[in-house]
Amino acid sequence: MLRSVIAGTGGYLPARVLTNDQLAEAYNLDTSDAWISERTGIRRRHMAAPGESTADMAAAACREALAQAGADASEVDAIILATATPDSAFPSTATRVQEKLGIHRGFSFDISAACTGFIYAVGVADSMLRSGACRCALVIGAEAFTRILDWTDRGTCVLFGDGAGAVLLRAEDEPGERGILSTHLHSDGRHGDILQVEGGMVRMAGREVFRHAVSKLASAVDEALAANSLAKADVQWLVPHQANLRIIDAMGRKLGLPAERVVVTVDRHANTSAASIPLALAEAVRDGRIRQGDLVLMEAIGGGLTWGAALARF
Ligand code: COA
User: Fold this and answer.
1) Would you say 97 and 79 are in contact if contact means Cβ atoms under 8 Å apart?
2) Superfamily of domain covering 2-173
């Protein structure tokens, strides 16, 4: 059976780090470290340097994923990049990454599904790999999110950060148990107004988003487990979208997972939108937590509303 196997993971974070206090001071915000960390778990975030593009960050994450897989860029025949902060409407950021990696064949395109973008990108890539449309795909989430924040809106600007993560997926004919087991994508445009970019800036009704988050994520997780005849107890790692520690903790509790089985980066990265899941994956693979054979559950919700889940055996 043809399956998409995760051959490598990579992540990149810009050098500049701002703690909550430094952010408050830099942008003259009426907020506090206590308010931000108590409600969200966020303590600091990375910020892209002037001139550092979404494609630059994505390419750096891809280089680590390629190196970890022992793959050469020439093997890649598809680049699928999820972002809410593309460098331009066109060329796509994925095509810019293709050029930066010196790849001159295959195809590349961007996906827009806000914070759910990486789950969508994995879903699309997995379908294309299993159909034979490509054999080796870089799947990326990359964001320069701090470029679309309204620094006078303390309710949203404290929540986000910049970065990129990537996975290298290879089509394998006899993967054993390994690979992407299934992806589950959803959207409902009726709730588009509660989290959107308007006039070039993020606008969010935080309470409303929170209200939808836990129930929609829980139903996507149930769907993913049922589709694979798996039980909650089979999940070894939860790698959730990193928006808010309270939402992450609620999902961990729902799955009955001990805290050490939930990969958390929101404290150090804040919400990096489409980049948050692949960044968390890269970190947990790098430090030896996630190992070959482990069952990993990913879930996300974001503007659209969009939401979804993916199950993968590493
Ligand atoms: N610092 C200090 N006070 C702040 C603040 C900040 N950064 N941001 C908002 N406040 C104030 C508000 O002005 C409000 O004050 P008021 O009561 O005097 O009017 C008060 O805090 C409560 O605001 P509210 O927005 O109701 O807070 P909340 O408890 O809902 O927490 C969020 C706000 C954003 C942390 C929370 O709603 C949340 O996490 N939502 C989900 C967001 C999310 O995950 N988005 C991404 C999805 S991909």
Assistant:
1) yes
2) Thiolase/Chalcone synthase (3.40.47.10)
| CATH number at 179-313 | 3.40.47.10
Q: Cα of 158 to ligand 1 centre, how many Å?
A: 10
Distance CA 196, CA 304 (A): 7
Domain boundary assignment for the chain: 2-173, 179-313
Query: In the block, which residue shows the tokens 């309270």?
Result: 246
Q: pLDDT per residue over 23-46, tens digit each?
A: 999 999 999 999 999 999 999 999
Residue that the structure tokens 């470029």 belong to: 147
Q: Which long-range contacts (CB under 8 A, 24 or more apart) does 250-255 make?
A: 250/214, 251/214, 251/217, 251/218, 251/221, 251/299, 254/214, 254/218, 254/221, 255/221, 255/297
Topology alike, domains 2-173 and 179-313 = yes
Measured in angstroms, how far is the CA atom of residue 186 from the centroid of ligand 1?
A: 26
Read off the pLDDT of residues 169-212 as tens digits, 9 standing for 90 and up.
999 998 889 999 999 999 999 999 999 999 999 999 999 999 99
All residues at 6 or more sequence positions from 269 whose CB lies less than 8 Å from its CB, including other chains: 13, 45, 46, 161, 163, 242, 276, 279
Catalytic residue among 115, 134, 136, 157: 115
Binding pocket residue ranges, ligand 1, CB within 6 Å: 31, 35-36, 39-40, 115, 154-155, 158, 204, 206-207, 209-210, 243-244, 271, 301-302
